[in-house]
Design brief:
The protein is mainly α. The protein is 58% helix and 8% strand. Strands 1-2 form a two-stranded antiparallel ribbon. Strands 3-4 form a two-stranded antiparallel sheet. It has a two-stranded parallel ribbon with strand order 5-6. It is elongated, with a radius of gyration of 30 Å.
Length: 462
């Protein structure tokens, strides 16, 4: 007898009480009770990919004559609704579950079967005329479905969100490089004064870092484009039609507008998750680049009166609850926090990649979550950084000239003419007396005034 508000379902382990209004079934309910770990669930982008895999599978199975049209069309409609997000609230399982993601694959199978049966005039939770395993999961295994969904959702995220955002950031940085090209300032190494650079050269370096990051991400696309679907349980393709994998990659390419191919080797595709580890590595490198750029912006903008203050950052919000008028580099700080999260995500993905035990990796759900989160937060913060911080940066030329005139590093340009030791003595005397390098050099008449003017021209040093 079912409890009030519940219905009784059965699976291979026996009877299970399932909420009467739920589209999921007994296996999902068991997993829900087994893994009350974090409350973290798969993202909508992953669920969309799962819906597309189920939709492609039913279409291919109908084309191959393995599934009748009545059942197939109902499954296809239900899977399409999952793809569009209609049943997102029915995907209730924690990320920290069975390492193959079988629970979430069955969650999809049960939701789609229930909806298909409802469309055919049957009951939610029934296993006929549409069965979650026999029909919705036909030709598939969790072991090839879940890695396929990881690749689809990651590649969509890279192409649709991250790469466009990075191109905006690169363009914004390149624009600042051009804008600041005439601004000559003191360079710094070891956080100490060094020879002059143009501020435009600094920002050109930042733009190049993002350009390299784009290239690294684009280099992962080929391996992410390989789909494991068709390998079923261990990579042999047992219980699937020989043409199933080919049909699947064609359908999924058509649905997404991306170019997928069947995995070159299904045992590699299911036993390892190297493409995911590689992609995460590229994202980690990007995160490191973003933190360097964000921190440089913070350092150069520190002040406004008692710090370096060579950059004026756009004020986007009050900075203190106690200090009136204080404005903080909050956008750059947000970038740094995202970078830290992505680096941590990469550590989790790296450890997960080590868990490719024999024919199957058994940490796929957490890999999927961390990879997709990294893509999502990098996409958002890169565009925010470009639009709310970099675009509004201004050079504080008065401050820049003040520092440049005082710099002891200008004596570096004298070394080829008077030698390292003599140049060092001039630098030491300038430091002790508070005079500039130019003043000491002119006083000592080490070279003609005309020669000194040319040699000590800061722009010439850049």
């Amino acid at each position: 007898m079912a409890e009030k508000g519940y219905r009784t379902e059965s699976d291979s382990m026996g009877k299970m009480q399932v909420p009467e209004d739920a589209y999921w079934g007994a296996q999902t309910q068991r997993a829900y009770l087994n893994f009350p770990v974090s409350g973290i669930r798969f993202s909508q982008r992953f669920i969309r990919a799962l819906g597309m895999v189920k939709l492609a599978a039913v279409q291919v199975n109908m084309q191959l004559g393995l599934l009748d049209r009545e059942r197939g069309n109902a499954i296809a409609k239900a899977a399409s609704e999952v793809t569009r997000g209609k049943f997102d609230d029915q995907f209730i399982l924690d990320i920290f579950q069975t390492g193959s993601g079988t629970s979430t694959n069955m969650n999809a199978n049960e939701v789609i079967a229930s909806r298909a049966n409802e469309l055919l005039g049957g009951k939610v939770g029934a296993r006929a005329p549409v069965h979650p395993n026999d029909h919705v999961n036909m030709g598939q295994s969790s072991n090839d479905v879940i890695p396929t969904c990881i690749h689809i959702s990651a590649l969509e995220g890279l192409k649709q969100e991250l790469l466009p955002s990075l191109k905006v950031l690169r363009s914004t940085l390149a624009g600042k490089a051009e804008e600041f090209d005439e601004v000559v300032k003191i360079g710094r190494t070891h956080m100490q004064d060094a020879t002059p650079v143009r501020m435009g050269q600094e920002f050109g370096g930042y733009a190049s870092m993002i350009e390299h990051g784009i290239g690294r991400i684009e280099n992962t696309i080929g391996n992410l484009s390989e789909l494991s679907i068709g390998g079923t349980a261990v990579g042999t393709g047992i219980n699937t039609h020989p043409e199933f994998a080919r049909g699947m990659v064609e359908k999924l390419s058509e649905m997404t507008g991306l170019s997928f191919v069947e995995a070159k080797n299904h045992f590699e595709a299911q036993g390892s998750k190297d493409a995911v580890v590689e992609t995460s590595g590229a994202l980690k490198t990007l995160a490191v680049s973003l933190m360097k750029i964000a921190n440089d912006v913070r350092f150069l903008g520190c002040g406004p009166r008692c710090g370096i203050s060579e950059l004026q950052l756009p004020a986007v919000q009050p900075g203190s609850s106690i200090m009136p008028g204080k404005v903080n580099p909050v956008i750059a700080e947000s970038v740094c926090q995202v970078a830290a999260q992505v680096i941590g995500n990469d550590a989790t993905i790296t450890i997960s990649g080590l868990m490719g035990n024999l024919e199957l990796n058994v940490m796929m759900p957490v890999m999927a979550y961390n990879l997709l989160q990294s893509i999502e937060i990098l996409s958002r913060v890169s565009r925010i950084f470009a639009e709310k911080c970099i675009a509004g940066l201004k050079a504080n030329e008065k401050r820049i000239i003040e520092f440049l005139d005082k710099s002891l590093a200008l004596c570096t340009a004298l070394s080829p003419y008077i030698g390292y030791d003599e140049a060092s003595r001039i630098a030491k005397e300038a430091f002790e007396t508070g005079k500039t390098i130019s003043q000491i050099a002119h006083e000592k008449k080490i070279l003609s005034d005309e020669e000194l003017e040319e040699i000590l021209d800061p722009r010439r040093m850049t």
